[in-house]
Amino acid sequence: GAGVSQSPRYKVAKRGQDVALRCDPISGHVSLFWYQQALGQGPEFLTYFQNEAQLDKSGLPSDRFFAERPEGSVSTLKIQRTQQEDSAVYLCASSLEGTRGEKLFFGSGTQLSVL
Amino acid sequence: AQSVAQPEDQVNVAEGNPLTVKCTYSVSGNPYLFWYVQYPNRGLQFLLKYITGDNLVKGSYGFEAEFNKSQTSFHLKKPSALVSDSALYFCAVRDLNDYKLSFGAGTTVTVRA
Questions:
Q1: Tens digit of pLDDT for each residue in B64-92?
Q2: Which chain A residues are closer than 8 Å to B43 by Cβ?
Q3: How far is A4 from chain B (nearest CA, A)?
């Protein structure tokens, strides 16, 4: 596709349920980021991949959060035993080369609601 | 550590008037500065960036921003606002030594006809 694709668009989970969020970046993009955006807030960094290597996971809020990008393209963010405070929009972004001056291309996000 | 402050939650202007959205930043080294815009139910879209060079940078849709190192500011401006500019605007900063982009809390711009 022409842009960053995220699925599902909406996800409703019961507290304690595991969820998996998918990101399909722009083809050939080296860098991939996951962000969490709470209602009324700016995006907060979760984790960063350069190809298949996870170079920074300092933003993951707990060990219930896990991200992978095994072949350097599609990425999955997994949240185990979801809690109400996990409710947010999860944004994926990619960039071509991974240089710090590059702009990011964002997906439309997955809105997660934990009941 | 790097951070961004957007002091105004909301900015309201009349169509045709100048628009300014304020941003200040804090980094340990030289900053890379960005503005993104978010329309309802859509992802963030890049507007412009400052890396080095001329302090006045021009971007998409007639927007520009001025980098001021002494005031650590990077305000977004548009000389004549349109109703279609109504959206949520985010300032972001990246430190020379960091991969992640840190965002401000956002400013909602409403342009009335």
A1: 999 999 999 999 999 999 999 999 999 99
A2: 3-4, 91, 106-109
A3: 9
